[in-house]
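Why does this matter for the project? Reviewers at the last site visit asked to see concrete outputs rather than summary tables. In response, this paragraph embeds two records directly. Each consists of the residue sequence and, immediately after it, the corresponding structure tokens. Nothing has been edited or filtered.
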Amino acid sequence: MQVCRPVRDLLPGDHAWFPFASEEEQGHVIGPWIEHGLEIRDKVIYITDAEPWELPGLYGRDLGFAVRQGLLSLIPLGEACLTQGMFDPQKYLATLNDEIAKAQEQEFRGIRLTAENSWIFDQPFGDSRVDFCEQRLDAAVAPSVSVTAICQTDVRRCGGGRFSLLDSHHEVRVLPNPDFDDPQLTITRTYQPLGLHLRGEIDVTRRLRFAEALGSLPPTTETVCLDLAEVTFVSLDAFGVITDFTRKRGPRCRVLLRHVDPAVRSIIDVVGLHRLPGIELGDG
């Protein structure tokens, strides 16, 4: 069974999968993971042609200091995994093994590996080469007490059977870190669909946190989905936050409440949905 974990909770031995559908979503997960790794002085190894200031979620930040200190290694695709312009799975795996060995010799406590490999599917025999790599990488990472890997996949380039293939090779799927988290309420950004997943109770004491999370969503968003499957109480003040949000965003904005718990639905029925402009119910 696949486990879903916020990126902050990944552990050594996790060969994790991160499917994303936008650059914003990619940066929301990969940026904090790299940043935290550098803060605690883990070795971060990224197979990419990007420059240090072009990394997802860290665009514009100069990470040259981390490169100079040996904390961050950015390995170009040509050097890491291409032979005569074609993806070479043996070379890719050898590169990762060499980098892990170097980091272990330098006595890094933690080693973080990541790459975005959706482009491989566009090459001849791409599916089988990805399949081969994922099997071998899992065998190398899973027993480790120091290595954590995130395989990034742009789902816009990977549909149908390819999505299932990658899903089957990873026991852990990466989620964004919560925007807010305490014993009473957890708020996490979602991207497919765009909105928020909430867990706990949204009462008057958490109203401002809820409003901040809603306000942080992209301003061009017309439909916001709130997943309430794990919410047991929503105060009238919280409903006021939602209606105020839709009013400020304009007449085309709507908030779709999904997976509404019966206890929350009873509150909506008492208030009357017609008194909550911009709010709709449904799992569509």
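We now turn to the second protein, recorded in exactly the same manner.
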Amino acid sequence: MKAEQLQICRPQQEHLPAFALPALFEDLSDGVILAGPDRRIRWVNPALTRIFGYTLQDLLGKETRMLYADEAAFHEQRKIRFNPESSTTSHRYEVSYRRKNGRVFASQTTASPVRNAEGGVDGYLAIIKDMSEQHAYEALLRQLYAISSCSEMSGSGKIRAILRLGLERFGTSTAIVSWIQGSTYTVMLSESDVHEVPPGTAFDLGDTYCVHTLQAEGPLAFHQAGSSRISGHPCYAMFRLETYIGVPHIVGGKRFGTLNFTCLEDRDPFPEADLELIRFFAAWVALELNVQNTINRLAEDARTDPLTGCLTRRAWFEAAKEAAADDGPHALVLLDLDDFKSVNDTLGHPAGDDVLRQCGRLFQAHCRRGDAAGRVGGEEFALLLRGTSLQDGVAAAERLRAEIAGTRFEAGVQTTDMAASFGVARLMPGECVDKAYRNADEALYAAKRNGRNQVSSAVDTSDKGEGGGSGPG
């Protein structure tokens, strides 16, 4: 090919060394084409044949019109640039070309006339940069941004949409976001044209291709697994996945698992750009996971009292309203720490906070599954005991009162005794939570008036002799 190229160059450029064009452009990654004044192709570099898919023999002597996606653009370029009357010495412009396989791509073309010693035009030199990948990246970035900023999509919906883009890009049929702990590979989310793997499905890490990805600590791809070094891998034996591209992904600054795309069919080797691109996809998936973790954490923080770990007042009332929609009865228990102000006044507020923390842990420990403990005031707490009658709620409150009275609470560098007064009321299905709460509150203040450190219940004759579930032990 070089000899032929040299022979083509020589008649038109006697004033240049015969090796000038091949030496300058042969290793350039952009396509380079030399055409005569008639715009017939006289020489191209190897990159141009790769970009367009033609051989050198396909191109030599042919008009450059065969490269254009639109013949009108070919004639337009003649009028603007490729004619002896054009005064411009160099042009940079965008135009669409067509590959041999029919696919159209965008380019950035830099063209210049080749002049002889007398200043006449002996031909035209053009450097063609394939912009299809760059445009694809830009389009992909726009799509990813649109997904991440869509307020109508859930977090998992956004991740699924990102995975769908990856399936299209890599030409695969299944995408999986995994969570890896030790030697356990767990499917967190999948998207597939064939068969979605249910979330929570677990595999031994060694039975997945991703074990190699973790060992590589970066992107890894196989386009013909059955003919590669992993042909004997258990994953190939079980699923016959010929194509795989995967990468570890990081969530919250720590390795979380992997992102991978697979299919049963083999394909051409993945270009180097795809190995970088899958890092890009993993970063967007990790971004959504981080956002969702942050949202969940903020939501949990909004529901949880930071000092005691109990529900906030609002969150506790929401739990009570949910209970009112279920079968009952349920018991509401309000309690107030007796003489708590004296702890703050004599031992200091940090010591008082220590007592509240311990009380929060104690109340949560007495809750069964479905029950709820909330901090509804400074030193006032509320318990929702599901499926519990008024009688059993009183018994549960009495056990808790005795435990508080028998505990020495840490208060800074000292310890202190505490006592609490309790009010108990029942909550029936469909009943107004506010009404039941007021009943419990009235019973609580009755306990305060009657000497404190005791349990009082709201008057409810219909509950006498009632059975029901037992309170927490």
